[in-house]
Amino acid sequence: MSDQTMLAKGRFLSLVSRNGWEFTTRTNATGVVAVVAVTDRDEIVLVEQHRPPVGGPVIEIPAGLVGDDPLTQSEAAIEAAQRELLEETGFEAVALKHAGRFVSSAGLTDEAVDFYVTRSIHRKGAGGGVGNERIQVHTVPLHQVHAWLTDKMRLGIQVDSKVLSGLLLLQAYRHEQN
Prior knowledge:
By secondary structure, the chain is α+β, with helices and mostly antiparallel strands. The chain has three helices and 13 strands.
């Protein structure tokens, strides 16, 4: 087993050192999920919210933590994906397909993200997040998403790399369906 030392611990993250490498690990969750959701009008569902670490708004795909609440500690990743999609966007997925697990930033954290893809969603509520989240929901036609993202970046809005990963996974999903 590797030699791991706790360097600092916050409410949600710990800084640890393992064999001389310092990195973060989550203390309040059992996993992370992200959902690539497409409407029946061929629009990708994106969210925009202020992210304090980068000092401004960020465009993302719906995502969140697994088991981060005492009421959801034993939830499966797919259940968390359903919950996060509904909380953040107001859309409910009829079915989700697991598209893979990918590390988010291998030099910084041990975190891995389980991606799900769905093309069968329906609007059930307004979305916007829970608690103090102030999430803005965007539905963007897939054929316009690159131009739309470019316009957002020109306005100084950052784009989370999971959006690009999600678009690639969506292409792979489409090829599987044909």
